[in-house]
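Good morning,

Attaching, inline, the backbone tokens for the sequence recovery test we're adding to the shared suite. The designed sequence is right after.
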């Protein structure tokens, strides 16, 4: 592990946006690392941006980061890049992105040519997994899986202290573990994948369905009563039960994983049930990964990790039920230590201490 201070230009490329920022890493006498993010610039991306659109967004965001700060290229030690899709990390090559259709983009070489600094790239989920080892809660952990839960579900695997990419950079596709037989259709073409069952859009869909069912004649009477009690308690008494139910039904169409988590925290029994189910599915998937690989930690990141407090109890209960405990007595499931800017810190981690050992 490297122990010197570094200044890194971090680029986090996603499906809907890209971010550019400087990450200053300082290492104290005890080897403790601190990161400071500055001059964050954001550009929108769409699935139609294409290579040229992505490239132009990068150039203009990087220009803005420099304009916002006092930084000079001379002080930048390297560039870290996250790629939203399949990457060849050693060549810094963007092989393919199912979302945008971008393929065969030598983004590492092009950035190196343009800016004259070493470039380190990897798939976004692997970068986040590595960020956890370099800056987060896995600094002394060599065997763990990172699970991103956001619009989809991805996994990044670190084994024996190194990223394990698999034969075609397709390891740890935990989002496509089958958790429900003949369940919801997944983007991959199969049914009942974890991604189709427990990612952000799946949580919103499950909540809408449960609200509709509980509103209808097909409702579980006990759950309906609990729901009405909750709605009445949170109202000033001016609306009838029928009006409250109608309002809740209307509101459910705009609900997101984040708003549903807030509802659960306030005691909405339908939101609580949906997140209890989410925790069960993720817990089961996490137990399979752990039973297969004898992991020390399972880390949950991505936007839905903001609801970790809500789904952790059922996740942990199910995880424990499915775990081969004799070999996995100390394993924990934790929320990411990288916070909201995990992608930028993941990109910086690639450049600070490259897991593939290239320069
Ligand atoms: Zn799938």
């Amino acid at each position: 592990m490297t122990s010197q201070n570094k200044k890194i230009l971090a680029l986090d490329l996603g499906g809907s946006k890209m971010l550019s920022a400087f990450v200053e890493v300082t290492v104290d006498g005890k080897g403790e690392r601190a990161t400071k993010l500055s001059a964050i610039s954001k550009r929108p991306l769409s699935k139609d941006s294409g290579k040229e659109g992505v490239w132009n967004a990068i150039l203009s965001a990087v220009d803005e980061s420099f304009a916002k700060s006092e930084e000079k290229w001379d002080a930048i030690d390297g560039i870290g890049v996250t790629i939203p899709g399949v990457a060849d990390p050693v060549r810094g090559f963007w092989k393919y992105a199912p979302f945008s259709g971008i393929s065969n983009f030598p983004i590492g070489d092009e950035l190196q040519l343009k800016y004259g600094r070493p470039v380190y790239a990897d798939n976004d989920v692997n970068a986040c997994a590595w960020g956890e080892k370099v800056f987060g809660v896995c600094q002394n952990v060599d065997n763990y899986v990172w699970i991103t839960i956001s619009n989809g579900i991805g996994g990044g695997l670190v084994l024996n202290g190194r990223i394990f990419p698999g034969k075609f950079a397709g390891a740890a596709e935990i989002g496509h573990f089958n958790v429900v037989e003949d369940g919801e259709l997944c983007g991959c073409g199969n049914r009942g994948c974890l991604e189709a069952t427990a990612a952000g859009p799946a949580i919103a869909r499950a909540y809408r369905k449960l609200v509709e069912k509980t509103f209808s004649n097909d409702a579980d009477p006990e759950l309906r009563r609990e729901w009405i009690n909750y709605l009445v308690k949170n109202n000033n008494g001016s609306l009838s039960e029928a009006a409250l139910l109608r309002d809740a039904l209307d509101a459910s169409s705009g609900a997101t994983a984040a708003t549903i988590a807030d509802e659960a925290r306030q005691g909405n029994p339908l939101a609580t049930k949906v997140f209890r189910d989410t925790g069960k599915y993720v817990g089961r998937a996490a137990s399979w990964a752990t039973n297969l690989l004898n992991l020390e930690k399972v880390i949950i990141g991505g936007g839905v990790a903001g609801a970790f407090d809500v789904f952790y109890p059922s996740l942990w209960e199910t995880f424990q039920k499915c775990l081969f405990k004799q070999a996995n007595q100390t394993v924990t499931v934790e929320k990411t230590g990288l916070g909201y800017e995990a992608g930028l810190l993941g990109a910086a981690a690639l450049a600070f201490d490259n897991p593939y050992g290239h320069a």
